[in-house]
Amino acid sequence: MPYRRLPNTDLARIRALKTAVQKSSGEEFRQSLIDNKTLSEAETLLLLFERKCKQYRQYYEIWVKAGKQLQLKAKNARIYLSHFIQVLYMCVIRSEIKSEQLALYGLENHNLIVPELTSNELLLIWGKKVLQGEELRTAKGGVPIFNPSLAKVKVIFSIFEEEYAKQTVRHQNTLRALKEVEALREDVDRVICNIWNQVEKYNEKNTLEDRLRKNREYGIIYYYRKGEKS
Q1: Were both Cys, which of 11, 44, 152, 167 would link to 148 (CB 3.0–4.6 Å)?
Q2: In which domain, by residue range, is 30 found?
Q3: Is 120 part of any domain?
């Protein structure tokens, strides 16, 4: 005996609701298998759920696409910042900058090793520390580092920082849209289950073959267990 299973994807949920609503709209009132209250709720939920799913997909696609651009800008900022720190260390080794001044950059305990910059978050943290440190040192009369200069690194870093902030907002929008979809799934599943129960109840006196055929017309999907004839 085949068994039914509720949709497990949002696309399948939309398809199940749409099939039931469209089938019902094509039936005369006296032949309707679904009560008016359930049908009205299904129509409202279908429009809302479809809109929320579409909105989520749009936000997600924008976030993913922008993420590729962010990584390019992060890579560029990482190269410049790493190079700047290496030049800073060379200045310390040549005694052009006092080693104790590394504390201005937060680098006093790094043994002249470039700190971890692999993630965007670490890049953001160290970029702010190092740039601020260079500004503090030169404000006290220190000779500025060149090749790359502070100004150049600041421009590259600000481009990354601005894009990172925008991407954070895009991510928040995507998560919010996903939560709105998730919040509707329980109601959608409940309505689909209610519709399927009513349809199966209406057709229960038919033969198995006719019952399954008529039920499928309303979007009910049946599965066969291993070894069962489909």
Answers
A1: 152
A2: 3-223
A3: yes
Longest Cα pair distance anywhere in the chain, in angstroms? 95
pLDDT tens-digit profile, the chain (230 residues) = 688 999 999 999 999 999 999 998 876 554 678 999 999 999 999 999 999 999 999 999 999 999 999 999 999 999 999 999 999 999 999 999 999 999 999 999 999 999 999 999 999 999 999 999 999 999 999 999 999 999 999 999 999 999 999 999 999 999 999 999 999 999 999 999 999 999 999 999 999 899 999 999 999 999 888 766 65
CA 30 to chain centre: 46
DSSP 130-174: HHHHHHHHHHTTPPPPTTTTHHHHHHHHHHHHHHHHHHHHHHHHH
pTM of the model: 0.84
Is 189:6 a contact under the CB 8 Å cutoff? yes
How many CB atoms lie under 10 A from the CB of residue 44?
12
Residue 213 belongs to a domain: yes
> 3-state DSSP call for residue 8?
coil
